């Protein structure tokens, strides 16, 4: 049985690294500010969010119909459609396609789904060299780290970090931190792979049932290069990415980039409707736990997610913890509510990595009630006995004392006993967690209770007598 | 009008002055205030931690103590939010339904029920950095939310404090970013919690306020702990203290 990810402990290390903590906080807060500014320019912003949410709910409620409609259209367009029940099936399908071509290399654009399926190590174990062509994803690949953010995989790194990494991997100038120089160093290294690779892979931001088209949004154009250059294009799609029509796509395109704080629209928004002449195009529709989540009454709404990252950018905990602290494919608020559906024990602590402040819910372009779901997940963790024994015991003591006024009044009469009663303090009292970075509140000479008895109850008794 | 005063457990223990200020303020306004002596806590600390089983008896006790009143007022947005929107650990009962319906945060009670705008007995010639809790903003809609960019800007706590003679507000960055308290989060994720607190205090201090004010004492308990650890002795006040005429 896997040990739960200790996000708090990982976050503690990140906070201690003041350079990276303040870098990430500033960069992502800027994204949040850019998101606000972009939303302000769209008077119908809230209506768009509602519409997007309704389209997603409708599509998810008729998922099987839309998926088969898409499949028929995609086949008619000349694509080869595969269905994968889980990560292993997905990876095997990709490998089989590559093996059939005799391919030993694969160039790919960024795809969180392939991260989720752990495709890269699967292929590498089978002798296939994989080159990530998204700058951030490539940085993470070279540094042997998973993505730290769903759209900016290396956003937690400073240009200094990247200059050093590239100097080691590419022999570039370690002192030159100019982003354009660094991007060029990476391109010079990856472009030859794109030109020679027998197969290219992309993810998908949306797939359209009506036309059988696949929509990919990038800022670097690398997805287009991966799709257009090699003779084989493989596209992996989570089944929840489907939307009904091209018309509905417009709603999401208007929301996606603005919510991410990256301007009005990505540099490239490409629709792939079928293979080029002489090329083949495979689409893999992946479930990997999605239909199970669709059946969860309290949690299916997380399937509406369009992976814009707005919830992460606004999350004060995420900005100060770093995406890697979650130890998961999806991180931040949306990750907290998605990951336990994959593996409840491993991600049982994630729902506690939130202050429940609600900012994530307010920025979500498809109106997922993220913080309410985080709260609900805490309850599920209790139902599934996933709450730490020490916390549980402290809470039991608290309930006993707090449900008995006499016990409460005895316990609160002195500060030392009060500290044991107050669950805020009691949970990890032995570790003195409150006092590590904060002063404890001073003891009051008398509780309000005692004051009231002296100044109101006793005086009124005197008056009454 | 008879009102039952609910004093949150941490105010009872650590900040009785806030309970006293709330009581005196309501009495000044001619409200008939009752303080049920057998009250303890609403159960939020346990429920907020996912421990619903462990919140049940406390929640049911709270419903028994307060369920018969037509109006319950508490100087805490956090407790009000919990009772109004999250009171699901205990058994359903008429008392509980009554309590859920009739509980108000002090700010709501003054602003929406009594509709008080002037506090002539209070003079406070100082610069205030006002912090409003996430429970109050996003849970109780007591102030506009920065994420909702098209909504009209308002703040009930600010409107009330504007009725205090001499009081000036200072503006600061990231005004409605969470302070990092978050209930048990403050101890389960103490490093991030404290960093959020340090950042919040730093943003406020940049505007040189004379004091920090909030209608939620739990946020202030955390922020004051953070400030003191950094050797900053800026005073902290609950909004009730200012409205009741405290002097710096």
Gap between N and C termini of chain B, in Å? 32 Å
- Give the neighbour order of strands across the main sheet of chain B: 2-1-3-4
> What's the number of structural domains of chain A?
3
Task: Give the helix proportion of chain A (percent range).
Answer: 40-55%
Which term fits the overall shape of chain B? globular
CATH class of the largest domain in chain B: Alpha Beta
Strand content of chain A: 5-15%
Let me know the average pLDDT of chain A.
Answer: 93
Q: Identify low-pLDDT runs of chain B.
A: none
**Mean pLDDT over all positions of chain B:** 96
Rg of chain B to the nearest angstrom?
Answer: 17 Å
What is the structural class of chain B?
alpha/beta
Instruction: Please state the CA-atom Rg of chain A, rounded to the nearest Å.
Output: 26 Å
Order of helices and strands of chain B: EHHEHHEHHEHEHHEHHEHEH
| Second-tier CATH architecture of the largest domain in chain A | 3-Layer(aba) Sandwich
Are there runs of chain A of 5+ residues with pLDDT below 50, and where?
Answer: none
Q: Report the biggest beta sheet of chain A as strand number plus sense, adding barrel if it closes.
A: 6 strands, parallel
The helix count of chain B comes to 13
How many domains in all of chain B?
2
> Strand order within the widest sheet of chain A?
1-10-7-4-2-3
Q: In the CATH scheme, what's the topology name of the largest domain in chain A?
A: Rossmann fold
């Amino acid at each position: 049985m896997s040990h739960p990810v200790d996000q708090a402990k990982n976050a503690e290390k990140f906070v201690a690294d003041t350079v990276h903590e303040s870098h990430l906080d500033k960069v992502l807060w800027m994204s949040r500010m850019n998101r606000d500014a972009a939303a302000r320019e769209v008077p119908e912003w809230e209506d768009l969010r509602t519409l997007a949410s309704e389209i997603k709910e409708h599509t998810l409620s008729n998922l099987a119909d839309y998926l088969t409609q898409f499949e028929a259209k995609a086949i008619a367009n000349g694509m080869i459609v595969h269905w994968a029940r889980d990560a292993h099936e997905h990876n095997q399908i990709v490998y089989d396609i590559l093996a059939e071509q005799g391919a030993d290399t694969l160039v790919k654009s960024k795809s969180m789904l392939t991260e989720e399926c752990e495709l890269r190590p699967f292929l590498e174990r089978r002798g296939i060299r994989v080159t990530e062509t998204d700058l951030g994803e490539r940085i993470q690949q070279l540094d042997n780290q998973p993505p730290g953010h769903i759209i900016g995989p290396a956003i937690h790194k400073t240009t200094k970090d990247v200059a050093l990494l590239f100097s080691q991997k590419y022999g570039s100038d370690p002192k030159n931190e100019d982003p354009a120089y660094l991007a060029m160093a990476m391109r010079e290294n990856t472009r030859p792979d794109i030109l020679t690779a027998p197969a290219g892979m992309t993810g998908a931001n949306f797939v359209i049932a009506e036309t059988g088209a696949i929509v990919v949004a990038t800022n670097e154009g690398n997805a287009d290069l991966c799709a257009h250059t090699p003779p084989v294009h493989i596209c992996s799609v989570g089944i929840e990415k489907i939307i009904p029509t091209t018309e509905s796509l417009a709603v999401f395109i208007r929301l996606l980039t603005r919510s991410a704080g990256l301007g009005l629209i990505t540099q490239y928004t490409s629709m792939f409707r079928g293979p080029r002449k002489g090329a083949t195009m495979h689409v893999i529709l992946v479930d990997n736990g999605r239909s199970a989540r669709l059946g969860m009454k309290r949690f299916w709404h997380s399937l509406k997610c369009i992976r814009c990252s707005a919830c992460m950018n606004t999350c004060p905990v995420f900005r100060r913890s770093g995406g890697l602290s979650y130890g998961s494919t999806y991180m931040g608020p949306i990750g907290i509510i998605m990951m336990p559906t994959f593996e409840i024990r491993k991600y049982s602590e994630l729902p506690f990595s939130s202050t429940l402040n609600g900012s994530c819910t307010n920025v979500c372009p498809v109106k997922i009630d993220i913080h309410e779901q985080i709260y609900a997940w805490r309850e599920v963790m209790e139902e599934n006995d996933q709450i730490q024994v020490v916390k549980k015991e402290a809470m039991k003591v608290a309930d006993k004392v707090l449900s008995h006024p006499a016990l409460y009044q005895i316990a609160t009469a002195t500060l030392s006993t009060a500290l044991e009663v107050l669950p805020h303090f009691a949970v990890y009292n032995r570790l003195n967690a409150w006092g590590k970075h904060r002063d404890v509140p001073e003891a009051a000479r008398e509780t309000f209770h005692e004051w009231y008895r002296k100044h109101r109850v006793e005086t009124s008794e005197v008056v009454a007598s | 009008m008879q009102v039952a005063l609910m004093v949150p457990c941490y105010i009872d223990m650590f900040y009785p002055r806030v309970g006293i200020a709330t009581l005196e303020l309501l009495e000044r306004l001619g409200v008939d205030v009752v303080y049920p002596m057998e009250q303890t806590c609403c159960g939020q600390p346990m429920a907020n931690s996912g421990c619903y089983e462990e919140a049940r008896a406390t929640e049911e006790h709270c419903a028994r103590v307060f369920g018969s009143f037509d109006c319950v007022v508490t100087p805490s947005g956090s407790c009000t939010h919990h009772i109004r929107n999250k009171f699901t650990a205990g058994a359903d009962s008429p008392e509980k339904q009554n309590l859920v319906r009739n509980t108000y945060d002090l700010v709501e009670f003054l602003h929406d029920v009594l509709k008080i705008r002037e506090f002539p007995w209070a003079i406070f010639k100082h610069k205030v950095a006002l912090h409003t809790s996430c429970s109050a903003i996003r849970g109780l809609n007591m102030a506009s939310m920065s994420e909702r960019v098209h909504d009209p800007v308002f703040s009930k706590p600010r409107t009330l404090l504007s009725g205090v003679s001499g009081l000036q507000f200072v503006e600061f960055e990231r005004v409605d970013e969470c302070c990092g308290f978050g209930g048990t989060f403050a101890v389960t994720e103490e490093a991030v919690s404290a960093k959020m607190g340090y950042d919040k205090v730093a943003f406020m201090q940049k505007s040189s306020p004379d004091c920090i004010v909030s209608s939620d004492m739990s946020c202030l308990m955390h922020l004051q702990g953070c400030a003191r650890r950094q050797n900053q002795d800026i005073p902290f006040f609950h909004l009730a203290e200012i409205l009741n005429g405290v002097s710096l």
